Amino acid sequence: MSRAPDSFPNEPRDASVHGESAPPGYRSLVVVVLSPLAFALVFACWTLFALLGVELRRDLALGSVGFAVLLAMPMLAGALASLPMALLARRLGGRRVMLVCLLLICPFLWWISQAHHYLEFLLAGLGLGLGAGALAAGLVYVAELGPSRHAGLALGLYGAGMVGAGLSYLLLPLISQAYGWRMAPLLYLMPVLLVAALLWLFADDGDAPAPVVGTEDEEAPAARATPMRRAMRLVACLADWQLWRLAITYSFFFGAFVALALWLPGHLTARYGLSLQAAALWALPFTLAVGAGQVIGGALADWRDFRSLRWWVSAFVLVCLFLLSYPPFSMRIEGIHGELTLHYAAPLWGFLGLLVAMGVAMGMGQGSLMRLIHRDHGGDMALVGGLALTLGGLFAALLPPVFVLGGEWLGIRTAGFMFLYAALVVCMLVMLADHARGTRSAR
């Protein structure tokens, strides 16, 4: 296991002022309940543009590529914010960083309700991406203050906050129909402020890490280290392949789910002729399946060190993506007794069944991998967890434009699943190379 920079060591902590009055069970309960709520709300805010797509494309006269770039903005900003915010949470406390990030997205929610130009929506989307700081800080918060015996279950419950996308699927189309789409962003202001208030009132940050005293070059505690020294140590840590091996695999499952959560309502509308409200409801089981899978995967990883699980999960998801990649097609065969014509088009229920099965597997992959990251890099959780979210956010930001450009280039609506299939093959090749490298090192 690599050593973290001295700005985020993993030393034992003394009892804090808050911790002395709060029983450990109470603290764990607060962490496990409030952190997923914050995660769910941030994720729900990120799906705003996807579910307001019809209105936004009409009012702004957007093409497919312009709308895809708009969808990608929160993930791009979130990827850039994840690692710094995770490190800041390790230094200042997860609760403080989560609280600040939740409050930061509030003015951008209000701005979306008032914006009229494409550039305004792009900038507001970048502002919503700052909410990723709450995701990264919450991950560090749960890893440090959650129940140690059931860390995987706690991390799985936290990751299940992704079902916040389902909250948007249910509510936003109704609000948009009843009160107009500009009221929809304002719907989230009150819940975001409420969760921020609950974090401020009932949660605490634990204790600040003890200062590190080392050799003559490290006589000063970490708090007095120059920014250049911290940056150099961070770069040195990031050069260690051990930090990347699990983060890369996690980033595929995280990024693929985020992109699919944004893309599915529009895809179902175009492919099956559904209204946006009906398409959002049909996409809801996929998000619920991913959330349930995260809890199952985390709990299984608590019970046993399922390192082989990532291989089985990846193989199952690969098969599902292969089947989902098939577009409707017709085949004409010259038979003995005449011409035979075969036609294939996946029915809606079959498409949804594959999505749900794949969602459970993707969730299990995320939950078990995050538990493995916690087990292998507990002292570097801010670094490795933040790195995983950064890579996942960059992958998620890449996917909406790739889905659109791939579909226009190939002329096939399922091009997005084809790209995910190819990306997973590359990811599994990286896993195979890492396994071979570890086998050679063991000899």
TrEMBL record:
InterPro entries with a match to the protein in the record: MFS (IPR011701), MFS_dom (IPR020846), MFS_trans_sf (IPR036259), NO3_transporter (IPR044772)
Keyword entries, A-Z: Membrane, Nitrate assimilation, Transmembrane, Transmembrane helix
SUPFAM superfamilies according to UniProt: MFS general substrate transporter (SSF103473)
UniProt domain Major facilitator superfamily (MFS) profile: residue ranges: 28-440
GO MF annotation, one: nitrate transmembrane transporter activity
Gene Ontology biological-process annotations: nitrate assimilation
Membrane topology note: Multi-pass membrane protein
Transmembrane segments annotated in the record for this chain: 29-54, 60-81, 93-112, 118-143, 155-179, 185-203, 243-264, 276-297, 309-329, 349-369, 381-404, 410-433
Coiled-coil segments: none
GO cellular component: membrane
Compartments (UniProt record): Membrane
Top-level taxon of origin: Bacteria
Main localization of the protein described in the UniProt heading: membrane
Disordered, as annotated region: 1-21
Keyword Transmembrane in annotation: yes
Record-linked Pfam families: MFS_1
Family: Belongs to the major facilitator superfamily. Nitrate/nitrite porter (TC 2.A.1.8) family.
Name of the protein in question: Putative nitrate transporter NarT
Protein encoded by which gene: narT_3
